[in-house]
Amino acid sequence: MPMVKRSAASNLGKFAATVEAAHSKADIMSIFEDLTQDDQDSVRLLAVKGCAALGKLLEPQDCDKSWRVRYMVANQLYELCEAVGPEPTRSDLVPAYVRLLRDNEAEVRIAGAGKVTKFCWILNLKLAIPPYPSHVSSIFQKF
């Protein structure tokens, strides 16, 4: 069963791109939420990796409503950083993490704040500080 779930998580974005828009929003996002809450770390990680493909299918007004997706990304960010490596982490995930820490939903901010220590451990502090504006760098200077 975990092998099937991993395959589903890996291909959910591709599948969603072929499904009618009416089904994408309701059914696909429900499947995505289920996969991001799976017992297997590998399934959750693969689901989060595919969230960018799902995000492209959403309209701007839908993105504000999907705070649970941002919450799951905040919960899985450490594992995602481990999977993609230092350069994509520095260039893409640090700014995304800062946005999660400033999210409108308290649950998203709490989930992100709960991962600060793990997130900082995976980064070399020198990778995190130089290329970012002071408001981003100040977060990491405390560690």
User: How many helical elements?
Assistant: 11
The major sheet is characterized as: none
| Helical residues, percent | over 70%
Mean pLDDT: 76
**Could you list the spans in which at least 5 consecutive residues all have pLDDT below 50?**
none
Gyration radius, to the nearest Å?
16 Å
Distance between the termini: 40 Å
Shape, please? Answer: globular
**How many discrete structural domains?**
2
Describe the protein's architecture and organization:
By secondary structure, this protein is mainly alpha-helical. The chain has 2 domains: about 60 residues; about 80 residues. It contains 11 helices and no strands. It is globular and about 40 Å long. The N and C termini lie far apart (about 40 Å). The model has no long low-confidence stretch (mean pLDDT about 75). Keywords: Repeat. It comes from Vitis vinifera.
Summarize the structure.
The chain is an all-alpha fold. Helices cover 81% and strands 0% of the residues. The radius of gyration is 16 Å and the shape is globular.
